[in-house]
Design brief:
By secondary structure, this protein is of the alpha+beta class. Among the domains are: about 325 residues, no CATH class; about 150 residues, Fructose-1,6-Bisphosphatase, Chain A, domain 1. It is built from 25 helices and 16 strands. The strands form five sheets. The chain has a six-stranded mixed sheet with strand order 1-10-11-9-8-7. α9 packs antiparallel against α10 and α20 packs across α21. The radius of gyration is 24 Å and the shape is globular. Bound molecules: zinc ion. Zinc ion binds next to α18.
Length: about 675
């Protein structure tokens, strides 16, 4: 299962509230610089780590050790994202650091932007669209840059001369037809052969499916996450997994992760946490997926204030949805804000019982949904620099069913997004009237956080699959439909009187802000992220358009949502909020049915009919309207730094420092945490 809210259109749209009353008493420093820089379609932000200073020394140490483990796996992700990424990064950084020519030229500036984009994406493919980044400098000018850089530090590939290596790397960078997409899920494409992600060698989609069909044949109530931690390779007709573990593929980086985890183990907060870290180490040593599951079972039950994710986890980057990209998030609980998610969890069964889906598809007993609001202390791997704002793990269905899951809302991250987007002019441009703006200003951030809570701790955990229906039945439509289901659950309940009753929202008007923003984003503003001529591919974006367009179409007769044209601009006005809620409920029932019955054809038709295609005229209009606003479609974060303070060989404190330069952090990471060879 893929369960991760990525901050995309919805959130960024809702964060744009000039008068946001996002009370976080620890973030009182108004002069904290949230935005560091902006280039291409990206913006680099910083987040604060309130309350770190007040933690006891042992907890600070734990965070420090875990944060070192979090950055130690960086190169694993780079290599997963593309076979030549590490070599290309070496080449680009060498130029950036040693180029002796004029740095004030357009070429050098374009080159720098390209490098910054590559850093952001952890490789040469766009972090979101997965298309190859296009350099805005010529190959000839690139040759000149290389010529005036340190010749002794140029990357050399296995079995190739330095010249051949350069030729190949340039082809990878410049040839738009060669290894052009990280993940290709277009209908009709061989998703395995035509995706550049470094998960498969010498295989077709059919080979992969056949290999795992064999493994899945045995009856197993607690199946491991097949393929999660390996590359699948076919050589001389023989297919085998090359496992990512100590002594195996990526072993050099994994050993560093283990080194820091051992230190963390010594200062664990509880015996459960200590046991969990020990299991995780054992898993990294052996690559045994049974141990990974054992670790997750312990992790779900561990409620220590300091917590972390570290491993091969999310499978978005595998066209087959099996192999996990490496990531890490180190965090600690925001005790006060967590009260909100506790209320939701305590009422989980009520929500399940009252949901509009068919009784057969409901969970009779909702298993421990543990939800909390966290303060992020460190981001690593696939969560850096672009981070989710909420995570719900573990992904293994049987663990979720038997042991429950942990769901988090990353509030210092959303707070930083919010601060960064103040005064961008977005609301003024896309709101139909002052009333809409007021609603969104007043209730936007609040309902936004609540949406994440509901999506993560209830939405994904709700419902059940009928006996005998395979978890893979919906294939490549699983991810967008799963996100659709979770979003609909949140949207449907947002306007339920229960929200006010539980004290989660102040009044009945609040939900309107969420509906306005969601529909506007799903139909219109998220298109900002699509290149002209392209269709929507990203799962969360497909889900949002699917919901918004479906409700627009199905509410047409009653004018639930009305398209309004004014001065050549398009707006979507919600005329009947109550009816819109009913439509959300109706669609939720259908999507739950599709999941529960594994109805591939119906799922496919929903996604393809409502979630994929873009209205070119509306798209062009959106792009034009965004041009004059000061917002980038995507943001990411630099991490703070943690420095141990020693006295007589004893660590007596860990100091938190906020860095203010993106390039410096990237270069420092490349220098300190490069543990892998150029090719793996
Ligand atoms: Zn989700």
């Amino acid at each position: 299962m893929k369960i991760k809210v990525i901050l995309t259109g919805l959130m960024s749209v809702m964060m744009l509230n000039a008068n946001a009353q996002n009370k976080n008493e620890n973030n009182t420093e108004d002069d904290f610089k949230y935005i560091l820089e902006q280039f291409a379609d990206l913006r680099i932000l910083r987040y604060q780590v309130p309350e770190f200073e007040e933690l006891p020394l042992q907890d600070k140490k734990l965070i420090y050790y875990l944060s070192q483990a979090a950055v130690s796996g960086r190169d694993i992700l780079w290599d997963q994202n593309g076979k030549y990424n590490l070599a290309i990064r070496t080449l680009l950084e060498n130029i950036y650091e040693t180029y002796s020519g004029d740095r004030e030229t357009d070429e050098f500036r374009s080159f720098t932007t390209y490098l910054k984009r590559v850093w952001f994406s952890n490789g040469i493919y766009h972090h979101y669209s997965s298309d190859k980044l296009r350099p805005e400098f010529s190959e000839a000018s690139f040759d000149q840059l290389i010529g005036k850089s340190n010749q002794h530090k140029l990357p050399v590939l296995k079995g190739k001369s330095p010249e051949e290596s350069l030729l190949l790397l340039k082809k990878v960078i410049f040839d738009p037809a060669f290894l052009n997409k990280k993940v290709n899920q277009a209908e009709g494409a061989d998703m395995v052969q035509e995706s550049a992600v470094n998960f498969y060698q010498g295989l077709t989609e059919e080979d992969v499916a056949a290999y795992y069909a064999e493994a899945r044949k045995q009856e197993d109530e607690t199946p491991v996450s097949y393929g999660l931690n390996s590359r699948l390779v076919k050589e001389d007709g023989i297919v085998q997994e090359v496992v990512w573990k100590s002594g195996g593929l990526y072993g050099q980086a994994i050993d560093q992760i283990i080194f820091w985890l051992r230190k963390a183990e010594e200062v664990a907060q509880t015996s459960e946490q200590k046991e969990g870290i020990g299991k995780l180490i054992r898993y990294y040593e052996t690559g045994d997926l049974e141990i990974w599951d054992e670790y997750n079972v312990i992790w779900v039950a561990d409620h220590s204030r300091i917590d972390f994710v570290n491993g091969f986890i999310e499978v978005y980057s595998d066209p087959m949805g099996m192999r996990g990209t490496w990531e890490s998030v180190v965090n600690f609980k925001d005790l006060e804000a967590t009260r909100r998610t506790e209320i939701i969890s305590e009422n989980a069964q009520w929500f399940e019982d009252h949901s509009p889906v068919d009784e057969r598809f409901k969970k009779k007993q909702v298993k421990g949904v543990t939800a909390k609001v966290i303060t992020v202390a460190m981001l690593g791997g696939d969560c850096y620099p672009h981070t989710p704002i909420g995570i719900n793990l573990p992904n293994a269905d049987w663990i979720r069913k038997v042991h429950g899951s942990k769901s988090v809302t990353m509030e210092n991250i959303t707070y930083a997004y919010n601060q960064a987007n103040l005064g961008s002019g977005f609301l003024e441009e896309f709101s139909l009237n002052e009333e809409e703006m007021e609603l969104v200003r007043k209730y936007g951030p609040m309902t936004d956080n609540l949406h994440t809570d509901l999506h993560e701790c209830l939405g994904h955990g709700s419902g059940q699959v009928l006996e005998g229906v395979s978890a893979e039945a919906l294939k490549n439509y699983h991810a967008p439909l799963e996100e659709t289901r979770a979003d609909l659950f949140a949207l449907y309940y947002m306007m339920d009187p229960k929200m006010v009753e539980l004290g989660l929202l102040p009044d009945a008007d609040a939900a309107k802000a969420q509906y306005i923003s969601y529909i506007r984003n799903g139909i219109m503003t998220q298109l900002r992220r699509i290149e002209p001529g392209n269709t929507i591919e990203q799962a969360h974006m497909r889900n949002r358009q699917l919901i918004a367009r479906w409700c627009f179409e199905h509410g047409k007769a009653d004018k639930v949502i009305e398209e309004v044209k004014r001065d050549g601009k398009t707006y979507y006005r919600i005329n009947d909020f109550k009816k819109l809620q009913e439509l959300f409920g109706k669609l939720l029932a259908e999507v739950q049915r599709i999941k529960s019955e594994g109805d591939y054809e119906a799922g496919k038709s929903l996604v393809e009919n409502y979630g994929v295609n873009v209205d070119p005229a509306l798209h062009a209009e959106v792009m034009k309207r965004f041009e004059k606003l000061n917002i980038t479609p995507y943001s990411g974060f630099v991490n703070p730094e943690y420095h141990p303070v020693e006295l007589d060989g004893e660590v007596i404190d860990i100091q938190l420092e906020y860095v203010d330069d993106y390039a410096s952090q990237m270069l420092e990471y490349s220098e300190k945490y490069s543990f892998l060879p150029l090719e793996n």
